[in-house]
Design goal:
four-stranded mixed beta sheet, S-adenosyl-L-methionine, methyltransferase
Length: 739
């Protein structure tokens, strides 16, 4: 889904022409800056000394060449030792794209020790468990980059993993005493790149560049007015100098390093388009730097290759444009994050069930290998992880009964006129759906409205206080480079928009009870879809963009009053973990409602919504579900009857709201797990089910049963099929029949 609003604030795109115009006519120019006076836009954080929004975010290569790829320190002691500074000593150089690797890697293929990066990538993908065992690879530290698999394998087989981990810990410790020294972020960025976590590498390079610009007074972070002076003091102390000239030279050197790291990190994230934009910015200031020039050429070559492959595959021009402007990374846990932050505890489960309906309860689901099942069946102590969860009927439920109506504050839309839709639940505020007398307007600002006293009180006493008076329109209006659709849509900007609302809720609750953002009940109940811990490289990578995943959440947190440089909890790995959870639990819908005017009814704008419904998200998947669902976002106001929005208490949900209504698709026995379909339409029919319009429910079940029996291909259904067949075999054996 794409979200957009009318442009009102400057974008962060470069004002120069498309980086690849000489190559592809389908590439468009990047949005130009718009001049604003400092302080004029309340939501603007990054302003340059001349009042123009600054270009932020550059980076450097991970392994650009074999000679300078690993610059851990100036120490000269042997591998694995540490210098007097606490940093690891110099480590062996990693491989370039085609260079000699460790013999044990070569032995897997042949006696030839010259193996290309593509060969090693193929080995990792095809023989995960065997490779991990033979090379003693730690799958948890294989990184998020699908580009630097070779280097990640080399880091581990060469004995560099532990020194790098130790150095990373030391650098994080340094940050506690000097959080405004950009050189530390450059060092951490370099280590993250060597470890294969190029998305985190990019984020640390971005922070370094923010600090450099503030230290040079070329840009200002208005939420931290004393930041520039704090940065200069930090460098004065580290260099033991009073010379402002030396400090300025040091900041310029750091800027070059950070720019190089950012570009190489973007390359590692397959974000070639982003990398080309940032390369242009870096080369304006360092036009003759050979490493930047080399990186720009590598990024351009990779961009061309990706473009050509998509065209050869027959993709449409719009798809080619969007796909080549998005990077990809593996979805993995960050191994340095405390494991307990990923747990859903008995206390959380009790809180969830206090909110849940009387028809069902949430409890642990047992599946997996016999060993895993045995481990999951044991009673969890307080503070321990309760494991996977599901929803189970607490009574017999009849077909067509409403099981759950799940309302949420985590609903966003691309509505252009915010006053037509409730800021709390997204319900329409237009007549005839709501009387004008029923609209609640806050006294503090004129930018939002609410459909009820309940929505009003929840917002004003909670999240709205952090958002009131702030200007977040830049999230909607900052164009996703190259991804604007036919209707002016703004790419996949829903993630940072959702992140803004979620962080406002989390931070408002922190005033009452301080907690880590990953342990807030709304965040902790969500689970990401991580691969098994023993998988070296997941089968597929996920879309990732520099602006959406790094620049936007960084600015959002600054705008909400978080000092991202001193906070130990609002880090990039925490941000990305929240993104993984949101993506895995969001549902999308759209609605188009007619409304009344003095001259008669008028068809309203179509709005797209993305919602994270906090209880609905516990439903597990089945291609033969026993529960259907639909949202309060009405799909067709001409044909949908009011029963679509009616709850079990006879109430009617407000049209357009972010509610989800879940209904029994058949009779359900007490204790049975309630499941929905994650694919196809809300009625659980899968993609092919679209052929069955007008067919009776029994007919649809019969058709789906055949499809299911033949195998829909999903792992869940394969497991269900196996269980069904085993039960059938046992029943047949008991009856004396042959199977």
């Amino acid at each position: 889904m794409h979200l957009i609003n009318d442009p009102q604030t400057p974008t962060y795109a470069d004002s120069s022409s498309d980086a690849s115009t000489s190559y592809s006519s389908t590439s468009s120019t990047v949005s130009s800056h718009q001049n604003v006076t400092q302080g004029q836009q309340k939501g603007m954080f990054y302003t340059s000394s001349n009042g123009v929004v600054s270009d932020l975010g550059l980076g450097s290569p991970i392994w650009s060449n074999a000679e300078e790829a690993v610059k851990l320190s100036n120490a000269t002691s042997s591998k694995g030792e540490t210098s007097v500074t606490g940093r690891p000593a110099a480590l062996p150089s990693p491989p370039s794209s085609e260079c000699e690797l460790e013999p044990e890697i070569a032995d897997i293929v042949s006696q030839d020790t010259n193996i290309t990066a593509e060969t090693v990538k193929s080995i990792v993908e095809q023989t995960d468990k065997d490779l991990a065992k033979r090379l003693n690879l730690d799958s948890e530290w294989m990184g998020t980059s699908q580009v630097y698999i070779t280097q990640t394998v080399y880091t581990q087989t060469s004995g560099n993993l532990e020194p790098l981990k130790n150095w990373r810990k030391a650098l994080l410790n340094d940050l506690t005493s000097s959080p405004y020294d950009p050189s530390i972020y450059v060092d951490i960025s370099s280590v993250d790149c060597k470890l294969g976590y190029t998305d985190i590498c990019v984020a640390h390079a971005h922070k370094a560049l923010l600090l450099v610009q503030a230290g040079l007074n070329t840009a200002q972070i208005t939420s931290l007015p004393s930041l520039g002076n704090a940065i200069r003091i930090a460098i004065h102390l580290r260099l033991r100098t009073r010379s402002s000239i030396i400090v300025a030279e040091e900041l310029q050197n750091i800027k070059l390093e950070a720019s190089q790291l950012l570009l190489n990190g973007l390359k590692g994230c397959s974000a070639y388009w982003d990398g080309l934009q940032e390369a242009k910015k870096a080369l304006k200031e360092f036009p003759d730097n050979p490493e930047l020039l080399e990186l720009k050429q590598e990024l351009l070559d990779e961009f061309k290759t990706a473009h050509q492959e998509l065209v050869a595959a027959g993709c449409k021009a719009k798809s080619v444009r969007e796909l080549t402007r998005s990077g990809k990374i593996f979805q993995k846990r960050y191994p340095w994050v405390d494991e307990s932050l990923f747990w859903r505890t008995p206390a959380l489960l009790r809180e969830v069930n206090r909110e849940f309906s009387q028809n069902a309860t949430v409890r642990s689901v047992v599946w997996g290998t016999p060993e895993e099942i045995a481990a999951m069946k044991k009673v969890r102590r307080e503070g321990e992880d309760v494991g996977p969860l599901g929803i189970f009927a607490t009574r017999d439920i009849k077909e067509d009964e409403v099981i759950l109506v799940d309302r949420t504050l985590l609903g966003i839309s691309d509505a252009r006129n915010k006053l037509d839709w409730c800021d709390g639940c997204n319900a329409s505020l237009r007549a005839p759906y709501l009387s004008p007398k029923g609209v609640r307007l806050p006294a503090c600002c004129k930018s939002v409205a609410y459909c009820s006293q309940e929505c009003y009180d929840t917002a004003i006493n909670g999240y709205h206080s952090l958002l009131c008076g702030q200007d977040f329109d830049w999230i909607y209006t900052s164009s996703l480079v190259g991804a604007s659709g036919e209707n002016g849509e703004c790419g996949s900007r829903w993630r940072p928009i959702m992140f803004t609302r979620l962080m406002a809720i989390v931070l408002s609750d922190m005033k009452l009870s301080y907690t880590h953002p990953l342990q807030h009940p709304l965040v902790a109940r969500m689970a990401a879809n991580y691969p098994r811990p023993d998988i070296l490289t997941p089968e597929s990578a996920h879309h990732w963009q520099y602006f959406e995943n790094v620049v936007a959440p960084t600015q959002i947190l600054l705008q909400l009053g978080i000092d991202i440089f001193t906070s130990p909890i609002f880090t990039q790995e925490v941000i990305q973990t929240i993104y993984w959870r949101i993506e895995n639990n969001a549902n999308m819908s759209s609605t188009e409602l007619a409304y009344s005017t003095p001259t008669g009814p008028v068809q309203g704008e179509k709005i797209n919504q993305v919602n994270v419904n906090q209880n609905y998200l516990f439903f597990n998947h089945s291609c033969m579900p026993n529960v259907t669902w639909h949202g309060g976002a009405v799909p067709d106001s001409h044909e949908t009857e009011i029963s679509w929005l009616r709850t079990s208490q006879g109430e009617v949900e407000k049209p357009g709201s972010s509610s989800v209504i879940c209904i029994a698709d058949r009779d359900i026995k007490k204790g049975e797990e309630l499941k929905i379909s994650y694919v196809g339409d809300p009625l659980g029919l899968g993609e092919e089910g679209g052929q069955l319009e007008g067919v009776s429910r029994a007919g649809k079940r019969e058709w789906m049963g055949k499809w299911f029996d033949n195998g829909c291909g999903c792992e869940v259904c394969e497991k269900e099929n196996e269980d069904v067949r085993k039960k059938a075999a046992v029943a047949a054996a008991a009856a004396g029949a042959s199977v």
